[in-house]
Design a protein that fits this description.
The chain has 282 residues and is of the alpha/beta class. The protein contains eleven helices and nine strands.
Length: 282
């Protein structure tokens, strides 16, 4: 029955996961096609042997350190569901702050703009940021750029899943290179980790191309900021997610590239540096 296999799976995952019960529930909910609340309501429901065998295999994958999002094939981000696999990073909850700030700045910029707002999501990965922005900014047009063709395949599936094929354009290329014209808003969650310091399970399963930020984690910021003045319209904005230790360093890079801009650092709920953002003069 459900209660027994969840209990056993939780015990199995306890040494490798910080959230063993949640992981077990997510895996079983995925297999049953049920919301998690139904698992609690029907805890005595029998589980067919074939389904139990499949469940046990998925739990073993999670016990070996594979992210639960890869195990079940999807992840919620900003209230939306996204397909994910090992071709893309798993969307993180902390990235939702980047989306919140981008939405606020986009709405402010749109007041003074004629025609649709044009946004570029640089390093789109699964497309989570681009899709979230498009869902909440129904008049915006978004270019979602990634250097990985495999990542863009995943992003394409997510764009189609949310009915945004007409408004989110996927572009293959390096950083701002594929943009044909300046945009109103640039948003990016670039690779910013020092690969040698990445958590072992992340290192083992998630794509290194989307993680590696160079010796000090700032390689992509340096290139992005250097190229951004030519790709950002007057009165536009640029927002980047950053590592918790990178606030002042990345803000300094932004100020060097945009001397007349207002550069700020936003903090997450834990008080950590999380987003560097700037607005340019009109």
């Amino acid at each position: 029955m459900i209660s027994k296999i969840l209990h056993a799976a939780t015990d199995q995952l306890r040494t490798t996961s910080a959230t063993p019960r949640l992981d077990a529930e997510l895996i079983l909910s995925h297999l049953l096609g049920w919301p998690r609340a139904r698992l609690l309501a029907e805890r005595d429901h029998p589980v067919a042997p074939a389904l139990f065998a499949t469940f046990a295999g998925l739990v073993s994958r999670r016990a070996n350190g594979e992210p639960v999002a890869y195990v079940v094939g999807h992840k919620e981000f900003y209230g939306l569901d996204f397909a994910v696999d090992r071709r893309v990073l798993v969307p993180r909850p902390e990235t939702e702050l980047l989306v919140e700030r981008a939405l606020a700045m986009a709405r402010r910029i749109a007041v003074g703009r004629a025609g649709p707002l044009r946004i570029a999501d640089i390093g789109t990965g699964s497309g989570a940021i681009a899709v979230a922005l498009a869902v909440h900014l129904p008049d915006a047009l978004i270019d979602a750029v990634d250097i990985s063709p495999e990542a863009l395949d995943v992003a394409q599936a997510n764009v189609a899943r949310h009915g945004l094929t007409g408004r989110v354009r996927l572009l293959l290329g390096d950083l701002l290179g594929p943009l044909a014209a300046p945009v109103d808003l640039i948003v990016s969650n670039p690779p910013y980790t020092i690969l040698a310091e990445v958590e072992p399970n992340v290192y083992a399963y998630e794509p290194h191309l989307a993680l590696e930020g160079g010796p000090d984690g700032t390689d992509l910021y340096r290139r992005l900021f250097a190229d951004s003045p030519a790709k950002l319209r007057p009165g536009g904005a640029l927002l980047c997610e950053i590592g918790s230790w990178q606030g002042e360093c990345v803000a300094a890079l932004a100020r060097a590239a945009f001397p007349a801009a207002d550069v700020q650092i936003a903090h997450d709920l834990a008080g950590h540096n999380r987003v560097v953002y700037l607005t340019t003069p009109t």
